[in-house]
Structure formats: C-alpha cells, structure tokens
C-alpha cells in the first residue's frame, strides 16, 4: 500500500478571504446564485481526467474517506464512492472557494495539498468510478412509513424516485449514503448552517420537525443501490496494493 500522506499545509489559511457567491452570514437565498459555475468548477468541468493522477490525489483524501471511498457509518465522513462527478467537482470547488464551510477538509483540499483544476478533474473522475459500499450506515427503522411518505412528497423532483440524484443538474446521489452523515447535512441545511445549500431545498424542508427529519433520512438510507454499482462486502481498493 502506498504511504498515506496527511498533509497539513495551509491550515493557517483557513481564515483567508476568498471570493464567494454566498453571503458570509448565511446560505445562498436565490436559486439563480446556487450554481453559477464560476472559478475552478467551470475549468475542471472541461478537462480530460488523468486516472493515474486521480489515484495519487485521492490518496490524500483517503486519510478520512478511506481508500475505498466508503467513509464511515457513524457519519464522521461521507461515502464519496460512486457519487456523480459533477456533484463532486462543485462541492470540492465550493470548499476551496470557502463557499461551503468545512474546516476539517479545507486544508486537504487546497491546491498546495492536491493540485490545481486538473487535480480536481482527475480525482473526481476517479472517485465517481469507485464501487459503492454494500453496507452503509442506517437509522433505527422505527418510523419508515412516515419517512417514505415524506420522501415521496418532497424529494423525487431533485434526488429522484430512488435517490439517484441528477448528474447534469448537480443534484447529489443520496442512495447508499450513511444515515448519520445525511442527518447532519439535512439539519444544517434546514437550520441555515450550510451556505452552499440549494435554496429550493431549504424552502422545501423548512417545516420539517426533528422527528420528520430522522424518519425521511432513515428511509433514504435504506433505498437500495443498484447491484452493478456496489462493491462486494470486504472489498479492498486494488489501486493501493
């Protein structure tokens, strides 16, 4: 296995001032400002990925997200494997531009740590092609009927009937994601703590109670991932042998 290098360069830069499409005090409020495609995102989208460099760049990411890209069931780190590449590009570019607050990830995402827009193109293509975890973290299963009702009423228009998301519209795949991670993000979006959240989603879930939130996320965590997209139980990434 390659040595996993934990890069600390740039930690002191977390508070630096960088241009942002989001208000410093809260979330984007107008959907037209949610995904303008400016900066590194627009550049990375046009570049041809280099898989070998993607493997090298992802080694930095794997210190938290694991070599398989499966994250952790306790929700500390999300599953990245199999996520839409456009979504990965947007989120990584947003974190680098300080449009999404993620102080844990920020120093690892900096150009000093992983490289320029080509590195974004390379690593996101690599991650998107990884097989997904066959055993993601789930909720306690106590209110699934309510969760299904809420999901079918509020979520398919963006995330799809089966949580498959939408690559072209930058809507994330949520099938197979860890319950605890989705619950935290849902709460932050509802409560105005995730600045790059889609304003349409903020409005859609504004009236969700905590019980509603847990129910719909529990249901979502149990949506089946197509077998073709899953890795086998116990799979280990051969690119790091």
Secondary structure elements and their pairing?
Layout: H1 40-44, H2 51-65, H3 85-96, H4 106-109, H5 111-114, H6 117-128, H7 144-154, H8 156-159, H9 179-190, H10 199-204, H11 210-221
Helix pairs in contact: 2-6, 3-6, 7-11, 9-11
Question: What's this model, at a glance?
Answer:
The protein is mainly α and 241 residues long. The protein is 40% helix and 0% strand. It has eleven helices and no strands.
CATH topology of the largest domain: Cytochrome Bc1 Complex, Chain D, domain 2
Q: Can you tell me the CATH class of the largest domain?
A: Mainly Alpha
Radius of gyration: 17 Å
Share in β-strands: under 5%
- Give the termini separation: 4 Å
Can you name the CATH architecture of the largest domain?
Orthogonal Bundle
Output mean pLDDT.
90
Largest sheet: none
Shape: globular
How many domains? The number is 2
Q: What is the N-to-C succession of helices and strands?
A: HHHHHHHHHHH
Helix content: 40-55%
Count of extended strands: 0
Count up the helices. 11
Name the CATH superfamily assignment of the largest domain. Cytochrome c-like domain
The secondary structure category is mainly alpha
Unreliable stretches (pLDDT < 50, length at least 5) are 1-25
């Amino acid at each position: 296995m390659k040595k996993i290098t934990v890069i600390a360069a740039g930690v002191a830069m977390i508070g630096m001032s960088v241009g942002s499409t989001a208000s410093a005090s809260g979330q984007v409020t107008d959907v037209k400002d949610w995904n303008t495609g400016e900066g590194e995102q627009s550049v990375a989208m046009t570049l041809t990925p280099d898989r070998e460099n993607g493997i090298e760049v992802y080694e930095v990411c794997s210190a938290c997200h694991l070599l398989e890209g499966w994250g952790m069931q306790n929700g500390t780190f999300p599953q990245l494997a199999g996520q839409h590449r456009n979504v990965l590009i947007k989120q990584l570019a947003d974190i680098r531009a300080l449009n999404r607050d993620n102080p844990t990830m920020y120093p690892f995402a900096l150009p000093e740590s992983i490289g320029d827009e080509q590195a974004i193109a390379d690593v996101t293509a690599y991650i998107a092609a990884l097989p997904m975890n066959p055993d993601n973290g789930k909720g306690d299963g106590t209110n699934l009927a309510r969760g299904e009702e809420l999901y079918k009423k509020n979520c398919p228009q963006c995330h799809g009937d089966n949580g498959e998301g939408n690559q072209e519209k930058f809507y994330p795949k949520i099938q197979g994601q860890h319950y605890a991670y989705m619950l935290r993000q849902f709460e932050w979006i509802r409560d105005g703590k995730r600045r790059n959240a889609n304003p349409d989603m903020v409005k859609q879930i504004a009236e969700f109670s905590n019980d509603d939130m847990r129910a719909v996320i529990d249901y979502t965590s149990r949506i089946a991932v197509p077998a073709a997209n899953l890795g086998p139980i116990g799979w280990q990434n051969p690119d790091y042998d």
